[in-house]
């Protein structure tokens, strides 16, 4: 290190060391400034993404409430005892400020599927009301609505849970019911009900087929007896 001590005592060496020190300090300042800008940009973008996540979360939250209203619809009976829905059809309106580019592609896709699911639910329920269900209770129609909107509501719950886990978005607390449990229980209940109905239908048609075959065999025996020559 003697050469460095001698170099530092030399006028030229002093200039070189001073210049190098100045450069190092300057570079370090530029590095810190760049690091600060990068962190600031990241922090601002993170806040912006969380803001758009909150916009999507509030939209899903409202949809969940609307779907719950369909599931718990008390219905209204007119003077003739015919049941009518009282819960409005769930709708979804995206906030104009929502920047879809800030939302992960899988969440964006699952969210954008929901309007189509709502349209499909209404078309399916209308078909059931017209061709399957009958007065006065139209049970099959209301069952279809409950099943479809429970599945839509469950999709919204899953999106909301993802937003909470990824961005810390909090949503409203529901003291008297758990939407996820309600939707899942409704879907299972309707599935079991439909399976029981199918089993009854299968049993009914099996009895009808058995009766038809017995009647056919009886008619064939009677025809054979008529054709049989007398005295045989």
Characteristics of this structure?
232 residues, mainly alpha, two-stranded antiparallel sheet, 2 strands, 2% strand, elongated
E-strand count: 2
Separation, N- and C-terminal Cα atoms: 137 Å
Apparent shape:
elongated
User: Mean pLDDT, rounded to whole units?
Assistant: 81
* Multimeric organization: single chain
Count of domains: 1
Fraction of helical residues: over 70%
- What is the spatial order of strands in the main beta sheet? 1-2
The profile of the biggest β sheet is: 2 strands, antiparallel
Strand content: under 5%
Poorly predicted ranges (pLDDT <50, ≥5 residues)?
35-40
Helix-strand pattern, N to C?
Answer: HHEEHHHH
How many alpha or pi helices? 6
Break the fold down into its secondary structure elements and pairings.
Elements: H1 2-9, H2 11-71, E1 76-77, E2 83-84, H3 105-112, H4 114-131, H5 139-167, H6 179-227
Antiparallel strand pairs: 1-2
How would you characterize the overall build of this protein?
The structure is a single chain. With about 230 residues, the protein is mainly alpha-helical. The protein has one domain (about 55-225). About 75% of the residues lie in helices and about 0% in strands. The protein has six helices and two strands, in the order H-H-E-E-H-H-H-H. The protein has helices spanning about 1-10, 10-70, 105-110, 115-130, 140-165, 180-225; strands spanning about 75, 85. The protein has a two-stranded antiparallel ribbon with strand order 1-2. Strand 1 (about 75) and strand 2 (about 85) form a beta hairpin. Helix 1 crosses helix 2 (about 10-70) and helix 2 crosses helix 6 (about 180-225). The radius of gyration is 36 Å and the shape is elongated. The N and C termini lie far apart (about 135 Å).
